[in-house]
Amino acid sequence: MPRQSAPTIELPTLDGNIHLLEAERRTSGALQSLVLDHLLSQGTDATATWIDSRGNASTQPLAQLAPSPRLLDRIEIARGFTAFQHYSLLDELHEQVTEETSLLVLPDLDWFYRDGDLNHREGERMLSEGIALVEDVHDKTRIPVLVTRTNRGEDTSPIECAAEEVLRCEQTSQGPRFTGSDFETLVYPGRGYFQTTITYWNRILTARHPELGESTVQPEVATVGTD
Amino acid sequence: MAFAFDHIDNGVCRWSRTEDGVECERDETYTPSFYVSAESSEVEDLRGHLSMWPDVDGVAIEEWRRGFRHEPERVLRVDVTEPNAVRSVAFDIRGWASPGEYRLYNVDFSPEFRYCLETGTDPTPSTDLTTMEIAIEPRRLANDEVGEIEIEDREFAQSPPFNLECVREAMETIDPDVLIVNASEVLPTLDDAADRYGVADFHLGRRPGFEQLAGRSTYESYGQVGHSPARYNLPGRVIIDRSNTFFLSETNLDGCLDLVGRSGKPLQELAWASIGNVLTAIQIKEARRRGVLVPWNSWRHEQYKTMHQLHEADRGGFTFAPDVGVHRGVHELDFSSLYPNIICQYNVSPEKIRCACHEDREDVPGIGYAICDERGYLPDLLQPLIDDRDAIKAELQETDDPERREELEGRSSAIKWILVSCFGYQGFSNAKFGRIECHEAINAFARELLLDAKEVLEAGGWRVVHGIVDSIWVQAVDSEEQTPLDELAERITDRSGIRLEHEAAYDWVAFVPMRDSEAGALTKYFGRKANAPEDDSPYKYRGIECRQRSTPAFIEEVQKELVAALDEHQEPEAVCDLLAMKLAALDRGRIDPNELAIKNRVSKPREEYTHETRNVAALERAADLGKDKHFGEDVSYVVVDDSKSSRERVRLATEGSADGRYDSEFYRDLTLRAAESVLSPLGWQRFEIETYLADREDAAISAF
């Protein structure tokens, strides 16, 4: 499963499965990098559909990560702000999918269903029915799905059940390492200490997709004085 | 017209003030209703099942719009036996099918408001209401003690039965429509005590009966923990708890009554309502007028956008980082009611933004959303508020009558709060009628307006030294000729359609850097106003210690004096000399400990604090003294020995201070921090201040 094109720098490819990404918090940027890498590996028309929760789509990191700003136009996003909105998004996901859709991104899929506005049963039910809706879309289209969850407790086991592939990303002294059922990938081996900052992922993506040339994205000038 | 509504024994008592007293009518016919729509099934199918359901009084098919964007459709009206049954039946129905199949409307209304809305009753009283105020000190309340009661600003401090007798007599004589208490516990405390001491005919309400509407609770809002005290109801009277009323504390009774009329919320409910709650009520009233139902849960998600659009939309309001330092001759220009005016001027309304009919149009700068040509409901709803406030402000300029002025000021400020909240409301996830795209569009328009204004001002010979959200601070550029600001403001007003006002002129303004940084903090400054009226303080402070509620009175006073010293001498040394005197007094134990009390809000229960903070020490101390503090409440204490981690670290303000002891080192540090805020605009940070103080001391010693 590891990519062969760039032997020194490897990220897992997302085939037509439902992938559950379990990333350590220290490896922030892993989700975003996988999404961008996937888009860059597809044709220029390929898009991703992203249903957000819990502010994962904070655009600052994504904008800084994307080796090309045009890439941001290829991610279509809608955010849920309540359990009900999030569920509606899942319910209407099938209407959003087109020929061009090449990835469905669902970070922290369980987040809203622990909300105090719902009683316990209701939350459980909304989560499991919500996942079933995603599975329906996936069964019909075989578009790869990338999900994450907020914790590994029993209440998120429906997510684990639906996942056909669990991708783990952990921080090692050699940099971040992805492991799956049948592969293990050190992103960028052999160069001592790595910190998974935005710059780090930015370099990885630019190195893997040299056709984009040097990274064109400058970090945004920080607003002076925001406290 | 009725002003209080009590749900008693399956009926509603409506209380009205008449020429010769009060009148109570009983409405036996009223049943509360809510509505249900179905997504893919027929809502009629629920009829049979629901009509047999507990607490359901009846069902009917009616035509309503499920939102401002929607045409009328057939929905099910469900009548229930009493207001409290609405929620439980609604929860039942929500669970009967797949999530989202049944949508419910008009569910979470407060009972009095619901009654007025559903019966078309205007709860504005037709004549002035009689009011009466009772206060009991919090520490007495904590001990159920009535040895001292304040009635209408008069102290009654004899035996408990005598005091209670006085309350009874006052209630009889005044017979208040509105009973104002300093804390809701006053009511059960009086009631229990009257029982205990056997005071005959002691009734706080106009009918027997004493109802607890809500228990004490805490809530979190915008990351802040709040504390909401218990609420009580007395038949025939409006209860206002001073510790739990935003609008009475920020405005006055006239301000509250103005909003009663606009929102349809009766006075008692209005008094404890939050701003967002009142804004929602105003919208609900408008929705009802237009045949629109009020969704219980927010199912409607935002439309998809590209990550690029989101990035543009996410940029927040306009900020122009302040130029740290002391600036002379600074002028502040503000857009008047910027956000509400943007909503009205550009038709930003939840049902009109990103409309399908103008999909290809890019009306909102930067993010390219379309806005429909049809007028939205939100501008229609806000325009009268803006106009009424302008009219009130105009009348205020003309009127000398103090009573009329007070009324107008209360109303103006009540409306102001509603206008201020309408922008944030659009971005609030649980807002009934909010829509994030509106929030983004308002921001985008605001940024554009401010940038345009900046350009015009700069072309007119002015330099922008600071800007944030709706205000811009400018200073004349020395080498250039200036177009007068009023002229520029008029030009900007004409271009934007929103009035830019010359808000204030300052002799000087100091922009404070962030601590340990040279960059300017966005909301920390102080300055001296030019032409301040004689009886007003000429100084304006923002964001610095003296404006923070936890700051001890002594520190606040010192900081203000330091600002005045800076104004007089314009050099750091003179300010430090004054500081040295204050520190010396502090060091010698000359400061009254009451002036050193720190007031903090308890943000979580004691057991959830993981660090041994001063707050924790204070909480433990309070618990030892049998005065448990609930989170959300204030705790006020003096630090007596900051090196300790136990309850010996602080002393509660209520304990008194026989020995006058305090930790002078700790307060020295606080004082220095406050001084640093004043001096850092001049380039003096903590290090420079300490160095100067040390040198000064050396000089004093060598003088001996």
Give a written overview of the molecule.
The complex is a heterodimer of chains A (227) and B (704). Chain A is α/β, with parallel strands linked by helices. Chain A has a single domain (18-212), classed as 3-Layer(aba) Sandwich (Rossmann fold), CATH 3.40.50.300. In chain A, 31% of the residues lie in helices and 19% in strands. Chain A contains seven helices and eight strands. Chain A has helices spanning 30-41, 59-65, 83-91, 93-96, 120-141, 157-162, 198-208, and strands spanning 18-23, 47-52, 75-79, 101-106, 145-147, 165-172, 175-179, 184-186. In chain A, strands 3-2-4-5-1-6-7-8 form an eight-stranded mixed β-sheet, with helices on both faces. In chain A, strand 4, helix 5 and strand 5 (145-147) form a beta-alpha-beta unit. In chain A, helix 3 (83-91) runs parallel beside helix 5 (120-141). The longest helix of chain A has 22 residues, at 120-141. Chain B is of the alpha+beta class. Chain B has five domains: 31-108, RRM (RNA recognition motif) domain (Alpha-Beta Plaits, 2-Layer Sandwich), CATH 3.30.70.330; 128-289, Nucleotidyltransferase, domain 5; 311-400 and 428-529, B family DNA polymerase, palm domain (Palm domain of DNA polymerase, Alpha-Beta Complex); 544-591 and 666-703, no CATH class; 593-661, B family DNA polymerase, thumb domain, alpha/beta motif (Ribonuclease H-like motif, 3-Layer(aba) Sandwich). In chain B, 38% of the residues lie in helices and 22% in strands. In chain B, strands 18-20-21-19-22-23-24 form a seven-stranded antiparallel β-sheet. Chain B has a five-stranded mixed β-sheet with strand order 10-9-8-11-16. In chain B, strands 5-6-4-7 form a four-stranded antiparallel β-sheet. The longest helix of chain B has 25 residues, at 402-426. Chain B is globular.
